[in-house]
Amino acid sequence: MDETLKEVDGGIAWGDDDRFLYYAKMDDTHRPYQLWRHALGTPQAEDVKLLEEADELYWMGFGKTRSGRFLVTQLETKETAEVHLIDLRAAEGSAEAAPRMMAPRERGVLYEVDHLGGDRLAVISTCEGAVNFRLLAAPVPPVGGCSDRGAWEPMCNAGGEAIMPYDEGVYLTGLEAFESALFLEGRRGGYTRVWRIGLTDGVPISPPQEVRFESEACECNVGPNHEFSAETVRLQYSSMVAPQQDLDLDLKGDALTLVKQKEVPGYDPALYETVFDECVARDGARVPISIVRRKGAGGGDAKGPAPMLLYGYGSYGVCIDPSFDYKILPLLDRGMQFAIAHIRGGGEVGRQWYHQQGKFLTKKNTFNDFVDSARHLISAGYTTPEALAINGRSAGGVLMG
Question: Hey, which of 57, 155, 385, 398 would disulfide with 137, CB 3.0 to 4.6 Å?
Fold first, then answer.
């Protein structure tokens, strides 16, 4: 079949079968702002517009839940969100097939939604002052949508006990629902984490269990998974000494099986080591520092200080995680250490690391944290002033003075 759709954002989502697909159109500034449904075999002029976002501050994104039942449309700025669901299994043209709003936008409130099965949804949201997102449950909104968040409640087990009360030290960044488990992506202690919650009929049967990888200081996430009823879930992991790994987690147990590891010719991970430290900044904030070096190169051990390259970014809430970077291997092989200071302005320790403590009138914390991290690395014996080099690029370039 030869069909062309014009003025399309680029991404598409299929309906419940192969009759319809959904796409977004862009405005004159290339902002996705309209959601359309196209019936295969018909001209684009007959397509149906389902949603339009007139506010130029809001960006439109959409995707189908893994369960296949809903199309989720996210209207979002950096600080505010609004979500609409379309039931893809409802009869075409019926009231049940029209977009349903989860909750109206409220300035400063972000939220994301996934389908647990049946009429149950999982939600993470910054509502009620949860700067780092709380875990909630909600029913599928009725025809016509919801006018408030009144039906949202803490996610509870069958006994009515909240399984994950809000903890400001845990920053939830995403959720991935399967028939028998809900996975949460997030951060704790400055580093990425993945939690698993067992489900039966969309109801939790276990508290969140953190998936344990080889190193806690790493970059990890839920990988590409397409089957809602999967018995294994693909996860991805990398550390400063481990090239990216694809791992399968058995949902009937907790065994992790290595499926594939990125090949780096000539690289031997046994020759390198990582150290994870933190400095206490001048205002008392604890700033994580990730270090990688060749074993025996020195740096805070019996061999004394060693040369070091310290990297920082600290802008826009961007997280610089301790993942594998083959480009620094020549430095390590020459006896140099490489360190990342996870300074404020980034998002490693939570949204407050940027929104409350690293921009506008608090932007000076970004610079102070970087200086204080360098001083800590010197005072702790990792390196010396003469042997310390610093690096920052793009927005991190302002750290260079």
Answer: 155
All residues at 6 or more sequence positions from 161 whose CB lies less than 8 Å from its CB, including other chains: none
DSSP string computed for 107-151: TT--EEEEEEETTEEEEEE-GGG-TT-EEEEEEPPPTT--SSSTT
* Strands of 111-117's sheet in order across: 111-117, 120-125, 134-139, 153-154
CA distance 217 to 314: 18
Q: Which domains does the chain have, with CATH numbers?
A: 65-261 (2.130.10.120), 269-400 (3.40.50.1820)
SS3 353: helix
Amino acid at 119: D
Q: Is the pLDDT of residue 85 over 80?
A: yes
pTM, rounded to two decimals: 0.95
CA dist 116 and 197 (Å) reads: 11
Q: How far apart are CA 100 and CA 82, in angstroms?
A: 11
Q: How far apart are CA 269 and CA 44, in angstroms?
A: 54
What confidence tens digit (pLDDT) does each residue in 254-289 have?
Answer: 899 999 999 999 999 999 999 999 999 999 999 999
Q: Pairing state of beta strands 308-311 and 388-391?
A: parallel
Q: Which CA distances in Å does 353 have to 77, 171, 324, 345, 376?
A: 19, 11, 24, 6, 20
Residue 80 DSSP label = -
Q: Which residues contact 90 (CB under 8 A, 6 or more apart)?
A: 96, 97
Alpha helices in 2-46 (DSSP H): none
- Whether 218 and 239 have beta carbons less than 8 Å apart is answered as yes
CB atoms within 10 A of CB 222: 20
The H or E element spanning position 50 is strand 48-52
pLDDT at 300 > cutoff 70: no
CA 145 distance to own-chain centroid: 27
- Compute how many other C-beta atoms are within 10 angstroms of the C-beta atom of residue 64: 18
Radius of gyration for the alpha carbons in the chain, expressed in angstroms and rounded: 24
In this structure, the strands spanning 111-117 and 388-391 are unpaired
